[in-house]
Amino acid sequence: MSEKISVNSAWQTALTQLDNVSMTMMLSEDVHQLLRNFERILTVSIPVRMDNGSLRVFNGFRVQHNSARGPYKGGVRYHPDLTLDDLKALAMEMTWKCSLVGVPFGGAKGGIICNPKVLSKGELERLTRRFTYAIMPIIGIEKDILAPDVNTNEQIMAWMMDTYSMNNGYCTPGIVTGKPVNIGGSLGRTDATGLGITFSIASAIKSKKINFKGLKVAIQGYGNVGSTVGKLLSEMGSKIVAVSSSKGGVFNPKGLNHIALMKHYKEHGSFDNFPRAESITNEALLELPCDVLVPAAMGNQITKENADKIKAKMVVEGANGPTTLEADHILNERKIPVVPDILANAGGVIVSYFEWVQDVQCYFWCEHEVNAKLKNLLDRSYEEVFRLSQERKVNLRTAAMILAVKKVADAISVRGLYP
Asked: What are the residue boundaries of the structural domains of the chain, listed by start?
């Protein structure tokens, strides 16, 4: 454990969480060490011919954490500030997320250090195809299945699927999830993460015997995920009192109209000057009085600096790692329950699993069936976490980690060590 890690990094947080829960569980040191390490980390150079004729070389990665319970599964992100430590943390978290909700996958994550916003469509396609070709030796429908993540979408997935298929010699839709429906994508995939968060909120407030009617909710990050949560909660009778994007947000204690919010954002590219609402920063949104706070933007938003100012009665993590370790401890001391990311935002990977199953079987489901299966898995997972938290007198995050790590540890133990 002499590895040098930057202070407060996502990777340090992931390792600390694993170390802490391993001590709580009295996990064998052999299994603990296996879980702390990765089965494979691939770094690739990606030469791309740019539109102006010049050659530019990008760096890409695929991190595969653990396959004890099944093939690796995880997204691919394009970002100029991407680091290998970020991907290691996210891959490990994906292992726990799949394990917790009963999806038979292990965790992986990949990405390219680039700014896709300054690349043309042609450059983006060439970058995507060359990256897919570079990682082909370690991916496959029974080895490692790719998915969209930050700055990647269904078009990127379509290019990846086509590249893999052309090199394979036949159409292989199951190599990626989150692709367009007409080439093997699943109905319900676009809204899956937001719908899953909504199901988690429903389970959490039910356990606290709170009603949806009049529930005051603040959502940091009103993009695809956050806006889906806002739309669904509004339809259930909740009040969305605050929302934000990367440029800031708006607040109205009497509630904001979801349809009007989305129309305003589409027309203006921000929530600035939204009528009958007060402008607020992303930081201020976190400290507003509300029943449920949903941080659905970026990681490390709730920290030791602002955790004692949180006025929400409950936090439901829509983003990956929005709460630091120190903040988690403060919220726990203040008796503010936190529904952890590996449970709350698992809807995306669950429906990705459904998409993979449909592709492998060449048999597709209607959206109602997808959503019903998603609700069943998340309701069951929340009940397991809540019950264990009550039995062990630990918070929801610790209970979720215990359940997730135990399933992977059990799989490692029963499979044994090869050779």
From this structure: 10-15+25-176, 192-344
**Which amino acid, one-letter code, is at 179?**
K
**Considering the domain 10-15+25-176, what is its CATH architecture?**
3-Layer(aba) Sandwich (3.40)
Three-state DSSP state, 128: helix
Per-residue b or e along 357-376, where b marks 16 or more CB atoms closer than 10 Å to that residue's CB: bbbeeeebbeeeebbebbbe
Closest CA to 289 of 258, 344, 252, 340: 252
Please tell me which residue in 88, 109, 179, 407 is annotated as part of the active site: 109
For the cut 70, the answer to whether the pLDDT of residue 351 exceeds it is yes
For residue 373, which of 185, 186, 180, 94 has the smallest C-alpha distance?
A: 186
Give the total residue count for the chain.
Answer: 419
Active-site residue, 208 included: no
Spatial CB neighbours of 291, under 8 Å, sequence gap ≥ 6: 205, 210, 215, 216, 217, 312, 313, 314
Rounded CA gap, 343 and 404, in Å?
10
Nearest-angstrom CA–CA distance, 33 and 259: 50
Instruction: Output the pLDDT for position 8.
Output: 57
Distance of CA 394 to CAs 3, 203, 291, 391, Å? 29, 18, 22, 8
The pTM (predicted TM-score) of the whole model is: 0.94
- What is the average pLDDT across 15-39? 96
Q: Cβ(62)–Cβ(110) under 8 Å?
A: yes
Q: Which helix (H) or strand (E) holds 64?
A: strand 55-64
Q: Are 347 and 193 spatial neighbours (Cβ–Cβ below 8 Å)? A: yes
Q: 222-274, pLDDT tens digit by residue?
A: 998 999 999 999 999 999 999 999 889 999 999 999 999 999 999 999 999 99
Q: Given this model, what pLDDT does residue 302 score? A: 96
Superfamily designation of domain 192-344: NAD(P)-binding Rossmann-like Domain (3.40.50.720)
